[in-house]
């Protein structure tokens, strides 16, 4: 977990937070202005206060001075200036939650979380919850505005898959930010990781270093997070440990393990633009190949009527195997077949199929390419072998 005596890294929004705020602010200025102007309605705030007073126990400073001392210290550590009220819920599951109201802090504890955590773990828990408040309050509330827009989008029955995926990923990254707040508050990553494990298991004693080793074993399965509101605990522990140690691979690791590869089945708002750009560049690469004829350019313009000669072709890096999932690889294979079959000359078609097969090797799509030749074009095994024989000959 690194040197726990080190100074805490700066608590800044994650790259994904900044990307979504920039996207919404730049592409939806009217919606952004509307969401920025929203304030919690007085009746909603009063309803929340009434519920908390009726259904919880208020943790006053006179009876619980230590908890109040801790939260005051964490507020100072996270540079938050707002009055706070603490509550204990009646249910038994260990957890905590922030009831967000601009300018006010309301923290609700569930189960025996305050009793089962050590004091430094409790500080980490407070740091986690107060980090939510910090994120939603900084930079003029920009990150809360993004949350508001995404929450309202999800409220509609016809919410698009891209809005659903964006909201999911935004929530997951917000939890990673809050975990960092817990480590900053405790000035160590160990208590924050221990708190995650304790709230997951209900145990009184855990070993954060042992859990990190376990998380590393679980991490051998390279699938991205399937979480809806929170990433899986083993991913959160690893993400926090990497960040605390100033691992230069942290943001890349988070993008790979939380966001996952580019997938047609899970395109968030920014990746819709990315997928379009890759499609355009991929078709450009095929249509401008020396072996391509005018039919390829005509087909490209059916996809993108504003296409002009001289546009940049997609790079090898943008279609590398580690960036794409199976659905996107199949999509690129289909594009290759479309361009090849647009050529009216049989020899030209076969040449372009070889070009497509060569490019498929860059994105680990050779097997999918061969399967598509058999399934979609009904080519025989000898015909497929001839296409790849040309590829081998060209490489030689």
TrEMBL record:
One Gene Ontology molecular-function label: metallopeptidase activity
GO biological process, one term: proteolysis
UniProt entry keywords in alphabetical sequence: Hydrolase, Metalloprotease, Protease
Name of the protein this chain belongs to: M48 family metalloprotease
Organism encoding this protein: Sphingomonas suaedae
């Amino acid at each position: 977990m690194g040197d726990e005596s080190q100074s805490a890294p700066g608590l800044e929004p994650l790259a994904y937070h900044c990307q979504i705020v920039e996207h919404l602010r730049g592409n939806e200025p009217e919606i952004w202005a509307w969401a920025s102007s929203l304030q919690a309605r007085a009746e909603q705030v009063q309803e929340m206060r009434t519920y908390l007073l009726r259904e919880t126990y208020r943790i006053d400073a006179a009876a619980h001075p230590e908890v109040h001392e801790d939260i005051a210290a964490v507020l100072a550590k996270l540079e938050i200036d707002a009055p706070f009220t603490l509550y204990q819920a009646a249910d038994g599951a260990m957890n905590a939650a922030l009831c967000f109201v601009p300018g006010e802090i309301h923290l609700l504890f569930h189960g025996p979380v305050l009793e089962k955590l050590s004091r430094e773990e409790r500080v980490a828990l407070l740091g986690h919850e107060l980090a939510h408040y910090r994120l939603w309050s900084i930079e003029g509330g920009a990150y809360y505005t993004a949350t508001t827009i995404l929450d309202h989008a999800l409220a509609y029955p016809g919410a698009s898959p891209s809005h659903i995926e964006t909201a999911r990923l935004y929530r997951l990254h917000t939890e990673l930010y809050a975990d960092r707040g817990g480590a900053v508050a405790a000035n160590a990553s160990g208590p924050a990781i221990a708190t995650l494990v304790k709230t997951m298991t209900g145990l009184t004693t855990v070993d954060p270093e042992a859990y990190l080793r376990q998380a590393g074993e679980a991490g051998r399965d390279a699938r991205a997070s399937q979480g809806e509101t929170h990433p899986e605990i083993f991913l959160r522990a690893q993400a926090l440990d990497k960040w605390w140690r100033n691992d230069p691979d942290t943001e890349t690791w988070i993008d790979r393990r939380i966001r996952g590869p580019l997938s047609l089945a899970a395109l968030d708002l920014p990746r819709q633009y990315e997928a379009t750009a890759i499609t355009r560049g991929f078709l450009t690469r095929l249509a401008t190949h020396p072996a391509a004829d005018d039919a390829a350019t005509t087909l490209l313009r059916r996809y993108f009527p504003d296409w002009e000669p001289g546009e940049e072709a997609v790079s090898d890096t943008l279609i590398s195997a580690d960036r794409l999932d199976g659905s996107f690889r199949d999509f690129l294979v289909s594009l290759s077949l479309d361009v090849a079959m647009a050529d009216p000359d049989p020899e030209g078609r076969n040449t372009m199929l070889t070009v497509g097969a060569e490019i498929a090797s860059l994105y680990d799509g050779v097997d999918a390419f061969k399967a598509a030749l058999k399934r979609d074009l009904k080519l025989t095994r000898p015909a497929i072998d001839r296409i790849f024989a040309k590829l081998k000959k060209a490489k030689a």
